[in-house]
Amino acid sequence: MRFLIIGGSDAGISAALRAREVDPDAQIDVLLKDDFPNYSICGLPFYLSGETPDWLSLAHRTEFDSISIRRGHQATRIDPAAKTVTVQTEGRGARTFSYDKLLIGTGASPSTPNIEGWQLPGVFLLHTMKDSFAVHEYLDSKKPRRAVIVGAGYIGLEMADALTHRGIEVTVASRTKAVLATVDSEFGEAVGQELRNHGVAVFTNVEAQRIIRVGDHLHISGSQGFEHDCELVLIAVGVKPDTALGIDAGLQTGDKGALLTNRKMESGVTDIYVAGDCAETWHRLLNRHTYLPLGTTAHKQGRTAGENAMGGQCEFSGSLGTQVVKIFDRVIARTGLSQDEAEREGFQPFTVESTVNDHKAYYPGATPLRARVTGNLATGRLLGAQLMGTWGAEVSKRIDVFATALFHGMTVDEISDLDLSYTPPLSSPWDPVQMASQAWSLATAQYRKETECIR
């Protein structure tokens, strides 16, 4: 059995490791177009900030027992009939690899900016290890004093934090009405204020349109009269699935342009699997596929594909879009659906925000934890949650409680019955997750009562 894997990031390496566990005798080859197998792209902002000074520490693992990692092997063509992959290598020309089972784990690539001048020196995208080396070298050699970040998603805001950490004056330009558009605007506005509190200039409802070089600096301009001078521009406006190789091999794509699979990660073309950011994602709550590129999802999809390539029959259990980000001293997390998303999907959502302390007030250091809980008004089922609090308030673990409840289809009321841990320095007899859920239940009861009175 020869299992050939295209791509050596989260999905590809997870598939290889699981395949090795299932079949110790299988021949497993990973085709890697660069020289950085299984590195944490999510860690790049912390490398560039200087908080993680050694980029080598970003490797999830450095040992791949009985797995052949073929660096500098760029796959250029898949022939499903012959069951071969043509590869362009560095210094050795073209080669052909045969396979019994194949995994496409080509990931995603940065969305091409619709900004004139985006390829000028001093303007960077940030997606790969090589991208990070280019930015790092520029920061060290040019020592920019001012930077503009176009895009206010996770990477853009983490880089605002990172560059501020290096003493650089940072401006963020976002076309959305509030930064971090993946959470409700109430939270996005609070995140924007957190950025301003740390000296970051924030411009929203702005479309960056043009970058030109003026002497020794760059000038960026856009809609709403936005203009700014700087020495560094970082563009972080999202990603798109890298699907050309799969499409050329006859694989189908979904509405978002990612490669279609079933829950076994099978592509529909015999013996070809797909996993990671190039693949569509089964959404557990919506009960259908969508495009939701996340590292955690890529790991799970890769593991599923690796097992099934060795003869297994497991299914990917699905994603809920659970995410968390740290921006300066603030941590923001979400899982499931927001109010607007739930409405678009045809639910009857009702969202309640509450604020409680992260632990007992009599123990020093208690801080406010804001929670937004969204449930189905008709059934009481939990649909989603968002949390925001200080770093150290266990935000990420508390959103995981909501994610677990969502995963198992619990109602909001049932969350109060969970047996959660308590000690005064860390929580309360009713954990903030439970208090937020109880606030939702009280508010919905009042809403129903008021609605009945109106009738």
Topology (SSEs and partners):
Layout: E1 2-6, H1 10-22, E2 27-32, H2 44-49, E3 68-71, E4 73-79, E5 84-89, E6 93-98, E7 101-104, E8 108-110, E9 123-125, H3 129-142, E10 146-150, H4 154-165, E11 169-173, H5 185-197, E12 201-203, E13 208-214, E14 217-222, E15 227-230, E16 232-235, E17 239-241, H6 244-248, E18 272-274, E19 281-283, E20 288-290, H7 295-309, E21 323-327, E22 330-336, H8 339-344, E23 349-357, E24 368-376, E25 382-390, H9 395-407, H10 432-454
Helix pairs in contact: 1-7
Compute the separation of the termini in Å.
68 Å
The low-confidence runs, each spanning 5 or more residues with pLDDT under 50, are none
- State the strand order across the main sheet: 3-2-1-7-18
Helix content: 25-40%
CATH architecture of the largest domain: 3-Layer(bba) Sandwich
Structure description:
The protein has 455 residues and is an alpha/beta fold. The protein has three domains: 2-34 and 61-109 and 241-309, 3-Layer(bba) Sandwich (FAD/NAD(P)-binding domain); 123-237, 3-Layer(bba) Sandwich (FAD/NAD(P)-binding domain); 323-454, 3-Layer(bba) Sandwich (FAD/NAD(P)-binding domain). Helix content is 26%, strand content 28%. It has ten helices and 25 strands. The chain has helices at residues 10-22, 44-49, 129-142, 154-165, 185-197, 244-248, 295-309, 339-344, 395-407, 432-454; strands at residues 2-6, 27-32, 68-71, 73-79, 84-89, 93-98, 101-104, 108-110, 123-125, 146-150, 169-173, 201-203, 208-214, 217-222, 227-230, 232-235, 239-241, 272-274, 281-283, 288-290, 323-327, 330-336, 349-357, 368-376, 382-390. The strands form seven sheets. A five-stranded parallel sheet has the order 3-2-1-7-18, covered by helices on one side. It has a five-stranded parallel sheet with strand order 9-16-10-11-12. A five-stranded antiparallel sheet has the order 21-22-25-24-23, sandwiched between helices. Helix 1 runs parallel beside helix 7 (295-309). The chain is globular. The termini are far apart. 43% of the residues are buried. The mean pLDDT is 95.
